[in-house]
From TrEMBL:
<keyword id="KW-0732">Signal</keyword>
<keyword id="KW-0479">Metal-binding</keyword>
<feature type="binding site" description="axial binding residue">
    <location>
        <position position="419"/>
    </location>
    <ligand>
        <name>heme</name>
    </ligand>
</feature>
<keyword id="KW-0560">Oxidoreductase</keyword>
<keyword id="KW-0349">Heme</keyword>
<dbReference type="InterPro" id="IPR036396">
    <property type="entry name" value="Cyt_P450_sf"/>
</dbReference>
<dbReference type="GO" id="GO:0020037">
    <property type="term" value="F:heme binding"/>
</dbReference>
<dbReference type="GO" id="GO:0008395">
    <property type="term" value="F:steroid hydroxylase activity"/>
</dbReference>
<comment type="similarity">
    <text>Belongs to the cytochrome P450 family.</text>
</comment>
<dbReference type="GO" id="GO:0006805">
    <property type="term" value="P:xenobiotic metabolic process"/>
</dbReference>
<protein>
    <recommendedName>
        <fullName>Cytochrome P450</fullName>
    </recommendedName>
</protein>
<dbReference type="GO" id="GO:0006082">
    <property type="term" value="P:organic acid metabolic process"/>
</dbReference>
<dbReference type="GO" id="GO:0016712">
    <property type="term" value="F:oxidoreductase activity, acting on paired donors, with incorporation or reduction of molecular oxygen, reduced flavin or flavoprotein as one donor, and incorporation of one atom of oxygen"/>
</dbReference>
<keyword id="KW-0408">Iron</keyword>
<dbReference type="GO" id="GO:0005737">
    <property type="term" value="C:cytoplasm"/>
</dbReference>
<dbReference type="InterPro" id="IPR017972">
    <property type="entry name" value="Cyt_P450_CS"/>
</dbReference>
<dbReference type="InterPro" id="IPR002401">
    <property type="entry name" value="Cyt_P450_E_grp-I"/>
</dbReference>
């Protein structure tokens, strides 16, 4: 409490409390709080979560310096308490580090590419799912409905078709329950930060910090996916016979073992990769769709313009395909503006400084947690102009009517740890939203009750639940 701040470390917005550091200063809406702290301290500042030093990075240049130019030291992850509770700490892709992460990431990426991520093969599969989804929306016959869970199930079906070669019906109550548990996991993260830094708190009676609820949800997801793993796992030699990620992973492992190459590919990492992709691939894409529909309720002119573009470039006799993507400039701009303004993963995922390293004018000790504040780039007035907090898709279109994507558009982060599913997410966003705006007009439950643009803060920023009417266009 009486120590002077270390001049080699970035400044803190407030003097840390003994033992707890800044934990009790954290607000339930870090987005607004972090903006204020940037104004006060500049682009880089220190927070203490208990004893752990967490350095928040703001602005494109500083985030690029850490995650791209100094990727060798800023690409590890700190341990994640929920992985500890399921006994899979430092496994899989999202929360692993070092050589194990490198191998798991490169194998997962090559499997996703083999399944057609970024190519037509997968686009056809997504389009089939989109067909089921829009039919389901049509069956609601314009009744005010919250589309969140069914959108989650639909985007989850895309990832599940890769993981286990299977899709689920929107009415499947067991799967609905699993999806709700995943949603709660993503939203409850904020409450649990205290437990993350003081693991012993989860042994206290009651569940004040929701840590027990989160462990139960995480275990339920793990149990469901390990059941699929046991069901689908089989002896497979022939690469032409691959039905899902499980097959592809096993073939890759066997290849390495046969060639006498030492490998981290094993059942535990496979299970964790399934959990990682299921978690990361479901909530993110569907939340972006959920935001986009909400923005369209607020900006009916934009919605009409999107529909007119689809009508003039593709018509209404067939569903848009991935080959149509380059024709729909305005829709692409609307999707990017949604991602920019909603900034759904505002603090990215935490990185770990693996060695002592210089950053800006400071020297950060080994073990420092790094929070890249993507919000600070996606909402930066010096990049996007004074109207950075308004929805204006035209900012992504140049004077010749072509798409213009500034390098500061980083909703998927940057550097070696940037989103593994970016190509898949972009395909999904285009195919879902183009089909939705082609087929329906989205309206608020009543003209006088447009749902608010308010959100719930978690790892992912989700709009508060809202209802919408989908009127089929003739
Ligand atoms: C709009 C949708 C999405 C957004 C905005 C998004 C955003 C992000 C962000 C910000 C990160 C953290 C990067 C970092 O630590 O620097 C990340 C990591 C990751 N994402 Fe996504 N993501 C999306 C969709 C997906 C999808 C569909 C998948 C599934 C295939 C996926 C899989 C992953 C994985 C596995 C990581 C961890 C990468 C690593 O640690 O090496 N994401 N994503």
């Amino acid at each position: 409490w009486f120590q002077r701040p270390d001049p080699h470390l970035p400044p803190s917005p407030r003097r840390p409390l003994p033992i707890f550091g800044h934990l009790f200063y954290m607000s339930s809406d870090p987005r607004t709080q972090f903006k204020g702290w940037r104004k006060q301290c500049g682009d880089i500042y220190s927070l203490y979560m208990g004893k752990t030093l967490v350095v928040v990075l703001n602005g494109y240049d500083l985030i690029k310096e850490a995650l791209v130019k100094k990727a060798d030291v800023f690409s590890d992850r700190p341990p994640f308490f929920l992985d500890k509770t399921i006994g899979l700490e430092d496994h899989g892709v999202i929360f692993s580090s070092g050589a194990l992460w490198k191998e798991q990431r490169s194998v997962s990426l090559s499997i996703l590419r083999a399944f057609g991520m970024g190519k037509n093969l997968l686009a056809d599969k997504i389009q089939e799912e989109v067909g089921c989804y829009t039919n389901y929306l049509a069956s609601l016959k314009g009744k005010p409905t919250d589309i969140r869970v069914m959108t989650n199930i639909s985007t989850s079906n895309v990832i599940c078709s890769i993981l286990i070669g299977h899709r689920f019906e929107y009415t499947d109550t067991e799967f609905q329950d699993l999806i709700k548990k995943l949603g709660a996991l993503v939203c409850d993260q904020q409450n649990v930060s205290l437990v993350h830094f003081f693991m012993w708190l989860r042994h206290l009676p009651g569940d004040f910090f929701k840590a027990k609820k989160m462990s139960v949800n995480m275990n339920a997801i793990m149990d469901a996916l390990s059941k699929f793993l046991v069901e689908k796992k089989r002896h497979i030699e022939d690469a032409n016979d691959v039905c899902n990620l499980i097959d592809a992973y096993i073939i890759e492992r066997n290849k390495k073992l046969k060639a006498g190459i030492s490998t981290t590919l094993n059942d535990r990492n496979l299970l964790k990769i399934m959990i990682d992709l299921f978690g990361a691939g479901t909530e993110t894409t569907s939340t972006t769709i959920y935001w986009c529909v909400l923005y369209m309720l607020h900006y009916p002119d934009v919605q009409n313009k999107v529909h007119q573009e689809i009508k003039s470039q593709i018509g209404t006799d067939r569903a848009p395909t991935i080959q149509d993507k380059s024709k729909l400039t305005y829709l692409n701009a609307v999707i990017m503006e949604t991602q920019r303004l909603a900034s759904i993963v505002p603090l990215s995922l935490t990185h770990l400084c693996s060695e002592e390293a210089a950053l800006g004018k400071y020297v950060l000790p080994k073990g420092t947690y790094i929070m890249p504040n993507l919000d600070s780039v996606l909402h930066d007035k010096t990049i996007w102009g004074e109207d950075a907090m308004s929805f204006r898709a035209e900012r992504f279109i140049d004077n010749n009517g072509k798409l213009e994507i500034p390098e500061q558009f980083i909703p998927f982060s940057i550097g070696r740890r940037m989103c593994l599913g970016e190509a898949l997410a972009k395909m999904e966003l285009f195919l879902f939203l183009s089909a939705m705006f082609q087929k329906f007009q989205f309206l608020p439950p009543s003209p006088s009750s447009v749902p608010e643009l308010s959100y719930v803060s978690g790892i992912v920023i989700t709009p508060k639940h809202y209802e919408v009417r989908m009127i089929e266009r003739k």
